[in-house]
Amino acid sequence: MTGNAIILVGVSSVGKTSVSEQLQSKFADPYLRVGVDHFFSMFPYEWRDHPRQPGPGFWVEETVDPDGAPRARIRYGETGSTLLAGMRAAVNALLATGNNVILDEMPIDDSIVPAWRRDLRATSSLWVQLTATLPVLERRERARTRGQQLGNARGHRDVAVGDRWDLVLDTDHLSPAQSATRP
Fold it and tell me: 0.90 cut: is pTM over it?
């Protein structure tokens, strides 16, 4: 029996991880939370935060916007692309063995969501886009204690995610618990 999937998509600091943790507590059956950060952290530093950017793994391209705010954009090379394909295969392996999955996905470029829509193999899938305004995202980003990369939300807000969503939640005024209980 193939498992079910809930796919939470949004930029950094929109609340994906917090919402997914709340969702896990709401279900009678276990849902495994899988996120791109889990896979990024599998790479050694030299490949994850490549100091010689660009490189074969992942690196952060940092710039400053005209208003003086930092902008960070995650980029990747051939080995990074291979890791992303492996992540999709790993999630499908979890689903194929009957595990339910909550996918915590921050699209780092326009290819990410289409690849998931093409490759994901779940019995049922609920596609949820989480949104928030830039001031809220940047406030949350500054307050983060893990995975903080100032400018990450700003740097990825323009990534195309498409328009086919089962649910779109604006997390500006919703707590993670409130977001997890939306119909």
Answer: yes
